[in-house]
Amino acid sequence: MRGRYMLGVDLGDYSLKYCLSQKRKENRFEIFRVGELALPGEIFSEGEIKSQNLLAENLRLFWQRNRLPREVALAFYHPQMVFQGITLPEMPEVELENALRWEASSIIVGEDNLQVGWQVLQKDARGLEILFSAFPTIAVNECVGAFLKAGIRVEAVEPQSLSLLRGVLSMEEELLQSSFVLLDIGFQKTMIAYFSKGKLVFSRYFGWGLKRIWNALREKFNLLPVEIMEVMNRGRSEQNIPYQLEEVVSGTIQDLAVELRRSIAFFQSEFKLDTASEKCLLVGGGAEIHPLKKEVKNVIALECREIKPLTLGKEKMPSGRFLTAVGVSLWN
To answer: How would CATH label the architecture of 82-133?
Structure first.
């Protein structure tokens, strides 16, 4: 990205978040601006773009209104995405790419054309320790094509989970040599990951998000979208939390609780997660909803906390929703 400014974009099913970072001396950075665009519900369906033209038009108008740079780095998610670590014997780069494509095709069944990227984390007597990602090429092209139609050039595409982790570590560098669970509760989905001593060990997504709470508020209390937004916004304060929000959180948490307990048990058995000393970091929009945070803390047998707030000039604001955008803005 040209100049000292770096624009990172986190594209989700229902919203786009951006972070404009500014390079400083000694490889430091300052967050210059963050923002969010609510997307019409008919653009995406279960992670797939259904209307590229509508997405492009929303991007064009938003960029024009906010005078954003025309070059971006994009944090990307797709339901058929692979992002994991693997250990392979040392081999030439062409053979390594073929091995990773074979590994990805065994997971993403029915997709012949995959876009694969990787990074060698460590080389030792066992071989190469690799972090790799794979996407269906058509899904990446569809997304990048929408930005091109809006007059925006995508310089880099990387998995949302990698961008999120970089955003977390950029905010709290002391975490780099520790071990922790990262829980990102978004609108459509939730991601849980385990990071241990400089390495992303494991991450997975499952289909529970704030949309469950949104739908329950609409169905149980017959609330309009503007009323639901008001209830959710009031839930970001510890005082005067709406009773409707507390009721629907309590009534919808069961599926999330099952997935969280299952994941924590897996981390304990496979990676020796120590529930007595390690922490869970709460991020995403769900980290701002107090009744939901309370329920999550009751479910997870770990100390839970949020990431420190963003500093924008003299102002501070919750960082949870924008950490992926922060991370992808620092991709290079």
So the answer is: 2-Layer Sandwich (3.30)
Mean pLDDT of 30-47: 90
Residue 197: per-residue pLDDT: 79
Cβ(170)–Cβ(330) below 8 Å = yes
Angle at 233 between CA 227 and CA 235, to 5 degrees: 110
Q: Quick check: 210 pLDDT over 60? A: yes
**Cα dihedral 79, 136, 165, 271 in deg (nearest 10):** 70
157 is written with which tokens? 């595409």
- In this prediction, residue 119 carries a pLDDT of 83
Does the pLDDT at position 3 exceed 60? no
The CATH-assigned architecture of domain 5-80+135-172+310-329 is: 2-Layer Sandwich (3.30)
Q: Which of 11, 3, 7 is nearest to 19 (CA)?
A: 7
What's the pTM? Answer: 0.87
Spatial separation of the C-alpha atoms in residues 320 and 296, rounded to whole Å: 15
- The CA distance from 163 to 265, in Å, is 25
